[in-house]
Amino acid sequence: MPDFIQESNIFPEQSLADRDGVLRFISDRAADLGITDDADGTYEAFQYRESLDMTGMLEGFAIPHAKCACIKRAAVIMVKNDRPVAWPSFDDVDCDIFIALLVPELEAGTTHIKLLSKTAVLLTKDEFRKKVRETDDSAEIARMINEGVGA
Q: What sign has the CA pseudo-torsion 132, 42, 104, 32?
């Protein structure tokens, strides 16, 4: 993966009502982008993962992730919502910024762990979280994320 995230995979200024809406939006965009050939299967993979444990991190950020045979290539999709939605998180704060990881089932033990680790480390950086909140420029967000993870 030459870049951790592509500019085309960043969706700022969304107005999604709830967690299901966020996961459906990400799944549909993954199909539009050719990341998956089955939006419904991808959505179900996100729902399954959410049923296991929380993916909400801290300060309104969440890392939903899906592993599925219907996902054709590993990718990251980011969504910035215009308001927080109820999302179980470590600090009990609802989430409005979602960095979704999509991984083919065969790469579950390798690519998935690598993406999750890089994303979690990035979210520990106060300056990164602050800058992402301050802009809706997809190119700038992609640049910050790619620089932050060393892509």
A: negative
State the Cα–Cα distance between residues 99 and 10, nearest whole angstrom.
9
CB burial of residue 2 (10 Å; 0-12, 13-18, 19+): exposed
Q: Is the pTM of this model over 0.85?
A: yes
Walk along the chain (151 residues) in steps of 10 and give the mean pLDDT of each run. 81 97 98 97 97 93 95 94 96 96 81 73 88 94 85 50
- Please report which helix (H) or strand (E) contains residue 71, including its range: none
Q: Where are the alpha helices (H) located in the chain, listed in sequence order? A: 19-32, 39-52, 111-123, 126-134, 138-149
Question: Over the Cα atoms of the chain, what is R_g?
Answer: 14
* Residue 109: other Cβ atoms inside 10 A: 10
Q: Residue written as tokens 């301050």? A: 134
Residue 99 near residue 119 (C-beta atoms within 8 A): yes
